[in-house]
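pinging the channel bc i need a second pair of eyes. not urgent but kinda urgent?? the chain im working w is below, pasted from the shared doc
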Amino acid sequence: DAATLSDLGRYCDEFLVHGVENEGKRCGILEDLVVLLGEHSPIPVTYAGGVRDITDLDRVKTLGKGKVDLTIGSALDCFGGSICYDDVVAWHKKEQIE
């Protein structure tokens, strides 16, 4: 909740939050968690867990109100997944321009 994020935020520079129940499953992100992080994290935050496809990058950007970063692991093609690493890099470069 907001109070916990605020308290913990005093002791670190950034949060790395794993959606553990979705980690490695490629079943989609935990949308409610991304929303909570976007609304209440007092410091930079990166979400990990469950990324299914490239559209999840836009989903995290929208749900997290541009305040939540995303990390992708096993869903990337270089780790045996179906998301092309080059597509992720291209998405990120496009976002930097906008």
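so Residues 85-97 form the longest helix (13 residues). and The first strand starts at residue 15 and ends at 18. — does that match what u expected or am i reading it wrong
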